Amino acid sequence: IPIQKDILPDIRQMIDRVPVFLAPNDPQPAALLARLAGLEKTDAEIRRQRVADTRIRSEQYAGGDKGEIVKTAESILAKSQPEAKILRTSVVSSDWKEESVLEYTDTTQSAIQYRVTRSVTVEMAAKKPDGAFLYTLDVSKDRRTDGSWGPLYGHVMFTDSILEENVKK
């Protein structure tokens, strides 16, 4: 499994700060950087191998609102990746997953709310000038105070490279 994309740069930044706390010629930062370079090389190789095995999952959802879910997912992707041409879309959740939470409404933690959200996962393969990509999206809706459901919204959670010939497999 590849390392989460933001971890290696964060590690590099931490190593770059280490010399401040050590003697001027201490070998520890250089040793840490060498170990990090090995991790980066291994991670890059895992990512290269993984592309050949990446596939879009099969359609699981059969609800009557599937068209609306797909349309919303396509709109979300179009906003975040305007140059992407969608090749295939699959709602990979078999049903809505419901979450009920009591949470703060903002960072000041001065007010709380009770939120009920339903979500499904959508995978979309799209082609861009720099290659084909598999996007994993969350599409959600919140329960209103009157018990009805609000409009669909969502975001791209993950982006992975995919071979274009694997999109239809």
Structural commentary:
This protein has 169 residues and is of the alpha+beta class. The chain is built from 3 helices and 5 strands; from the N terminus they run αααβββββ. The protein has helices at residues 7-17, 28-53, 66-80; strands at residues 85-91, 97-104, 112-128, 131-142, 153-161. Strands 1, 2, 3, 4 and 5 form a 5-stranded antiparallel β-sheet that branches. A hairpin with a 7-residue loop joins β2 (97-104) and β3. α1 packs antiparallel against α2. The longest helix is centred in the N-terminal third of the chain and has 26 residues, at 28-53.
Spell out the blueprint of helices and strands:
Blueprint lengths: L6 H11 L10 H26 L12 H15 L4 E7 L5 E8 L7 E17 L2 E12 L10 E9 L8
Antiparallel strand pairs: 1-3, 2-3, 3-4, 4-5
Helix pairs in contact: 1-2
Q: Give the topology string: H per helix, E per strand.
A: HHHEEEEE
* Helical fraction: 25-40%
Quaternary status of these chains?
A: single chain
Radius of gyration: 21 Å
Q: Give the class from helix and strand content and strand pairing.
A: alpha+beta
Cα separation of the termini:
22 Å
Number of strands: 5
Largest sheet: 5 strands, antiparallel
Helix tally equals 3
Low-pLDDT regions: none
Strand content: 25-35%
* Silhouette: flat
User: Average pLDDT, to the nearest integer?
Assistant: 93
Structure keywords:
alpha+beta, 169 residues, 5 strands, five-stranded antiparallel β-sheet, 3 helices, single chain
In short:
With 169 residues, this protein is α+β, with helices and mostly antiparallel strands. It has helices spanning 7-17, 28-53, 66-80, and strands at residues 85-91, 97-104, 112-128, 131-142, 153-161. Strands 1, 2, 3, 4 and 5 form a five-stranded antiparallel sheet that branches.
